[in-house]
Amino acid sequence: MLKLSVIGTGYLGATHAACMAELGFTVVGVDVDQNKIEQLSIGNVPFYEPGLDELLKKQITAGLLSFSADFSAIKDCDVHFICVGTPQSKTGNAADLSFVNSALEKVAKFAKPGSLVVGKSTVPVGTAARLRSQLKQINPDVELAWNPEFLREGFAVEDTLNPNRLVVGVIDDKSEQVLKQVYSKNLAAGIPWIRADLPTAELVKVAANSFLATKISFINAMAEICEAADGDVTVLAKAIGYDPRIGNKFLQAGIGFGGGCLPKDIRAFMARAEELGAQQALEFLKEIDAINLRARQRVIELVRKDLSNDLKSKKIAVLGAAFKPDSDDVRDSPALDIAEQIRSAGANVTVHDPKAISNAQKRFPNLNFESEIEKTISGADLVLHLTEWKIYRELDPAKLKSIVKTAIMIDGRNALDQDKWRAAGWKFRALGRVAK
Ligand code: UGA
């Protein structure tokens, strides 16, 4: 049985490590963050991801999964997965590759001859080839492949154990065979296997995320048109979604996409295209980004309209802080961006979220946070629904009406039942829908 190492133990790496152990491999997860390693070693996942906690504890107890802050722990491993982050650089749109570069250097130092380094991080096309030549200079008997990851936060375990496709960028048959061994259970289950060269494998990932971002911004552009023409974007989305060539997924209009992936990936893709002299091909992504950011402003406009353009000292309740439900990730969260902008315009803003409060507090110390929905909403002049957690759909509008000052609900995610809220006496607003 192959021994695996996973370098970087964030959302991607911790999940990958636990899932590879679940597939039966002995896995060591390595990270420079000593604190994270200590937590993971005792079975604590330092972020919220459904099902991961249980899986991690199970595999640590089974003796298949361990963690270390010492990179020499990888020296007996046959395959090394690089799962470190590639955030947007502080100075521009390009990806910051410093974590990938430093991970590669460390792996190159300790990898045994004949082992395979497999990149999973999202990188600008051309990175894998560059890393491979650096690796070969330090450790000529080690090969490099690229195997992009498509997991969604909130479904990370499910997506890793049952991916909808496996893409491997390889230089030779031997690397492909090693990866086929790693994923033999997935292959036996009939999961499509796509062999590609290194640049194509890198591109598949950013192309997929760009397509998803485009779909979301497309429906948000339709929402703007519906608002101008008194249409209803939720009905429009449903109707076009029945065409199997379009499909009904990722057509939920609202305050748009955020998180640690889609926004920075489309920007890094544009930056890379420019370096390659192919910027014209991705000009449209600028518009995708602009439509996405505009959705946040459109919600703020609705708030202003309903409060006669005077936000000073108004009490606004915000439901949701995470960039999407079933996650405590607040990176580039549209909900928090909106909450902060309303606060800086003079409103008194209180935010509720079932899982993301502590992360949100660190980034936005000036916002108020509440762990109980009733306390968040009590006395509010207006309520904003900005992350579509299931608990918010289950709220009783009639009961809540008695505790707010003014019963105005703005649904930034088009996820609440507007008829139910209106019937309970609320003024209900949503993006891309007729105001009644
Ligand atoms: C995304 C991709 O979906 C994954 O396939 C990819 O592996 C991952 O990025 C990554 O690159 O690591 P994720 O960031 O977890 O996954 O979140 P998504 O489910 O894609 O949602 C992204 C954002 O779009 C969220 O803010 C969500 O609220 C928003 N969204 C999604 C909409 O506004 N409307 C929709 O219809 C769907």
Topology:
Layout (H helix, E strand, L loop, with lengths): L2 E5 L3 H12 L3 E5 L3 H8 L10 H10 L3 E4 L10 E4 L15 H13 L5 E4 L7 H12 L4 E4 L9 H6 L4 E4 L3 H10 L1 H5 L4 E4 L1 H32 L3 H9 L20 H14 L7 H24 L8 E5 L14 H11 L3 E5 L4 H7 L4 E3 L2 H5 L4 E4 L4 H4 L3 H5 L6 E4 L6 H6 L3 E4 L6
Parallel strand pairs: 1-2, 1-4, 2-3, 4-5, 5-6, 7-8, 9-10, 9-12, 10-11, 12-13, 13-14
Bound molecules: uridine-5'-diphosphate-glucuronic acid (UGA).
The site of uridine-5'-diphosphate-glucuronic acid has 21 residues, from helix 9.
Q: How would you describe this protein?
A:
The chain is of the alpha/beta class and 436 residues long. The chain folds into two domains: 3-196, 3-Layer(aba) Sandwich (Rossmann fold); 197-436, Rossmann fold (3-Layer(aba) Sandwich), CATH 3.40.50. Helices cover 44% and strands 14% of the residues. The chain has 18 helices and 14 strands. The chain has helices spanning 11-22, 34-41, 52-61, 98-110, 127-138, 156-161, 173-182, 184-188, 198-229, 233-241, 262-275, 283-306, 334-344, 357-363, 373-377, 390-393, 397-401, 418-423; strands at residues 3-7, 26-30, 65-68, 79-82, 116-119, 143-146, 166-169, 193-196, 315-319, 348-352, 368-370, 382-385, 408-411, 427-430. The strands form three sheets. Strands 3-2-1-4-5-6 form a six-stranded parallel β-sheet, with helices on both faces. A six-stranded parallel β-sheet has the order 11-10-9-12-13-14. A two-stranded parallel ribbon has the order 7-8. Strand 4 (79-82), helix 4 (98-110) and strand 5 form a beta-alpha-beta unit. The mean pLDDT is 97. The structure holds uridine-5'-diphosphate-glucuronic acid (UGA). Uridine-5'-diphosphate-glucuronic acid binds at residues 122, 149-153, 209, 212, 216, 250-252, 254, 256-259, 261-262, 323-324. Uridine-5'-diphosphate-glucuronic acid is lined by residues 122, 149-153, 209, 212, 216, 250-252, 254, 256-259, 261-262, 323-324.
